[in-house]
Amino acid sequence: MAPKTATKKDSGVPPIPADTSFTPESFERELKSLAAKAKQETSWGATGKQFLIYGRVLLLLTLGAASANASVASLSPVFGGIPASLWHSTLVASALFAGWSSNLHIRRLLPEKRPLALWLPLLAAYAPVFQTFLAPPIANHLGARWGPVVIESLTLFPLLAAAISCAATELENATGLDEVIRLPKCFGDALPGIGSWSVYKLAEGYTTVAGPPPLSSSLSASAFIAWLQTRVARQVALALAYCLAAPSRLAIYAVPALLHTVVLNTHLAGAPWALDATNRALQQDTSDRWVVLDRRESITGYVSVLESMTQGFRVLRCDHSLLGGEWTKYPGKIVAEPIYGVFVMMEAVRLVERIGVVPSGEKPSALVIGMGIGTAPAALVAHGIDTTVVEIDPVVHDFASRYFRLPSNYTAVIEDAVGYTDRQVAEQTSDGAGRFDYIMHDVFTGGAEPISLFTVEFLQNLHALLKPSGVIAINYAGDFTLTPIKAVVHTIRSVFPACRIFREHPRDKDATGPDFANVIVFCTKSGSQDSDIVFRRPEEPDLLDSQTRRVFLVPKHEVFDTNFQSTEEARIVRRNDTEQLEQWHAESAIGHWTVMRGVIPPKVWAQW
């Protein structure tokens, strides 16, 4: 009998499977599997993955730069543009270094399920909320020098450090640049940091918005884009952009912050409910009630029209500075009554006894650099002078025309004064006759002046445009203990040898420390020494039936060289040599900030 074949049931031992690892069929299957994987992981796929990584890095760096610009812009109305940026660059550099260098340590501190990227939308959404609540008390207690840096340390610093740390994490997953372009490893290790810094600085320049186009009441796409470029709205847009750049499960917790910014933040320009909330806050104190009539973002800053309902006057504000003001409860019969004497003193150019031959019967002409609320142009027009006003900011011109007593029979030029004067000088004849009998130069804003308008080159343009018998008045606000005012006067005298200088008010004899004041420099084109500047006695028509002009039209408080207290030698300000003015602008702006807090209540500066 033939033996039975052993089975699983019979022996209880499973059969040993045959080894098929090296069969032709298995080998063919393995080759097909490898081929499929190779198709999926082609060089194009790897390249696409790298592009996505670098794209996220680029987005994070751009959002970080835009956040930094938005932060300093939102602090400018409370502290002024220069004080708000005084420590800004240092703080930004510190945040970038902290985020880049401590990337690994930050990741270790966070729970594994909640990486740092999840917190970015929260940090971005709550930054404007904290700035809104922190700015008023910190401004009151720390002032303009340290207030901005403290606020940005609590709001911008953590956001920027987190964004840069996330960018560094992304770069760790990217192919090393030393492998791509075959550089030595020491260079390859440094390239990500250098490249990220370069991209950040480039994005910082491109995301700096000087000012949006005028807001429209329509619901058009352009009006929406203009609204997104306002200070607070820009911060809302950035918070939403962070949600897209770093999708987060925690984003739901950002909703209260976004709702507060959009619904309750009184600084949201273009939103009627925000303006109503601002005015309610300003009128809580019944002993000193204020109202914001209009406000708008522009190329020179945040511009608004304010009115004191208690004291009866109206002012035009730009960031933390006043461009002019007039009384509403004392309306002048011919022109408005200005609240500041310095604007009236500018009109004394007409009182200077002109040297040389003045053509009889010819209508005099005037050039005004900087409009303000139009106090000087209105007076010149009232005296029958053909007046041209050059103003760089269209919103300032619009508000001056709509909310202040500015006549319409003058020529308005909305342009940078440097470009305008360059063109006018190039077009006029070479006989040196000039075009204008009077020139008024008044461009002070935010604690410092546009330096380009005080260079010897710009003043030479004004000299060329002034008639031989003409007179020029130049307003400069500065601290007599610092060098800028001394340098500006030195530059003016290098172009106009015959000048006399007057300040708005005398210095308190018992005062110590800073001596900040408005000064007006009166010069003639044909004179050769200061004694050539002589003011005639004003007649009744010169006063325009104005009480303010009766008191302030004739300059009284003359300034002499001994009044300049800076011991530093003053240099002529040139287009390629403005360092002497720039290095002291911060001190001047902080001094101006303190003065402004005494002119207008702090609550008005905070509720912008």
Topology:
Blueprint lengths: L7 H4 L12 H17 L2 H37 L1 H4 L3 H14 L1 H7 L10 H35 L1 H17 L4 H5 L3 H22 L14 H8 L2 H15 L9 H10 L7 H11 L7 E9 L2 E8 L4 E6 L2 E7 L13 H5 L19 E5 L5 H8 L3 E6 L2 H10 L7 E4 L2 H11 L8 E6 L14 H10 E14 L3 H13 L2 E6 L12 E9 L15 H4 L3 H6 L4 E3 L19 H21 L2 H5 L2
Parallel strand pairs: 5-6, 5-8, 6-7, 8-9
Antiparallel strand pairs: 1-2, 2-3, 3-4, 9-11, 10-11, 10-12
Helix pairs in contact: 3-7, 3-8, 3-10, 3-12, 5-8, 7-8, 7-12, 7-13, 18-19, 19-20, 20-23
Question: How would you sum up this structure, described in words?
Answer:
This is Spermine spermidine synthase family protein. By secondary structure, the chain is α/β, with parallel strands linked by helices. It folds into two domains: 222 residues; 260 residues, Rossmann fold (3-Layer(aba) Sandwich), CATH 3.40.50. It is 49% helix and 14% strand. It has 24 helices and twelve strands. The protein has an eight-stranded mixed sheet, sandwiched between helices. The chain has a four-stranded antiparallel sheet with strand order 1-2-3-4, with helices on both faces. Helix 3 packs antiparallel against helix 8, helix 3 crosses helix 10 and helix 7 crosses helix 13.
